[in-house]
UniProtKB/TrEMBL annotation:
InterPro entries noted in UniProt: Adenylat/UMP-CMP_kin (IPR000850), Adenylat_kinase_CS (IPR033690), P-loop_NTPase (IPR027417), UMP_CMP_kinase (IPR006266)
Any GO BP: 'de novo' pyrimidine nucleobase biosynthetic process
Record: residues binding a ribonucleoside 5'-phosphate: R75, K96, I97, V98, G123, F124, P125, R126, R166, R177
Domain notes: Consists of three domains, a large central CORE domain and two small peripheral domains, NMPbind and LID, which undergo movements during catalysis. The LID domain closes over the site of phosphoryl transfer upon ATP binding. Assembling and dissambling the active center during each catalytic cycle provides an effective means to prevent ATP hydrolysis.
Cofactor: binding comment: Binds 1 Mg(2+) ion per monomer.
Protein's name according to its UniProt entry: UMP-CMP kinase
Enzyme class: transferase
Binding site for CMP: N130
Species this protein is from: Oryza rufipogon (Brownbeard rice)
Cofactor(s) needed for function: Mg(2+)
Superkingdom of source: Eukaryota
Lineage: Eukaryota, Viridiplantae, Streptophyta, Embryophyta, Tracheophyta
Length: 222
């Protein structure tokens, strides 16, 4: 289903999307996907501008997790001048979601390199393909999913004021990203909700108050 090849990941990914059951038989491939490393993962989800990055920095500082932002890894890939950079840039500027194989490869490399066993993964999985392929290829379920719930009006306002020079923080792309969030990312959150794995936070409050709620969850889990 994908045209690019990244070694074993491609085999496992095509299988995962075509027939998830077969993946259990591919455990030997999956177990090697993090170089034998055993890690705990928390997915941090929420719409664009809901405050994921802001709160992830707080979590790193207070609870010693490694923060991996899928969006930042993709932007670093663009800036590195990699062969996929132009394609990734075009997709992000259109407000769309980059093919899972690329994002998962970047996450996989970052986890293998990371000097820790606790990861908060921010902005991933962003669609059903991201979710199915990650869980099948990397063979890890998240401990839980932290969901920053914020109104679209507030997210739009924050993104327009973010001022980080991002090519996708313009009104046209922001509207597309919000649409993609509702259509493609919310179903992923609903999936985890149906499994009782979502911890929802009211993210419309000021950042320090949001962190109080985040802190309660992480303190409880420690
Ligand atoms: N609770 C909050 N209230 C108001 N502004 C916020 C809050 N959390 C984050 N921001 C600001 O909103 C913008 C988007 O936040 P960010 O953490 O980058 O969101 P995300 O990673 O979800 O896209 C940033 O400029 C940030 O400083
Ligand atoms: N799993 C992901 C995460 C991000 N991306 C792309 C598409 C997103 O619009 C951009 C930016 O994502 P990022 O999480 O950094 O920022 P926002 O939450 O949208 O503010 O990256 C992706 O294609 N796949």
């Amino acid at each position: 289903m994908f045209s690019l090849n990244h070694g074993g990941i491609l085999v496992a990914m095509s299988t995962a999307m075509d027939d998830p059951d077969v993946l259990t038989e591919k455990k030997d491939i999956n177990e090697n996907m993090l170089g034998g490393k055993k890690v705990k993962i928390i997915f941090v989800l929420g719409g664009p501008g809901s405050g994921k990055g802001t709160q992830c920095s707080n979590i790193v500082e207070h609870f010693g997790f490694i923060h991996l932002s899928a969006g930042e890894l993709l932007r670093a890939e663009i800036n590195s001048g990699s062969e996929n950079g132009t394609m990734i840039d075009t997709i992000i500027t259109e407000g769309k979601i980059v093919p899972s194989e690329i994002t998962i490869k970047l996450l996989q490399e970052a986890i293998i390199k990371g000097g820790n066993d606790k990861y908060i993964i921010d902005g991933f999985p962003r669609n059903e393909e991201n979710r199915v392929v990650f869980e099948s290829v990397i063979s890890i379920s998240p401990e839980f999913v932290l969901f920053f719930d914020c109104s679209e009006e507030e997210m739009e306002r924050r993104l327009l004021g973010r001022n980080q020079g991002r090519s996708d923080d313009n009104i046209e792309t922001i509207r597309k990203r919000l649409k993609v969030f509702v259509e493609s990312s919310l179903p992923v959150i609903e999936y985890y909700e149906s499994k009782g794995m979502v911890k929802k936070i009211d993210a419309t409050k000021p950042a320090p108050e949001v962190f109080e709620d985040v802190k309660a969850i992480f303190t409880h889990m420690a």
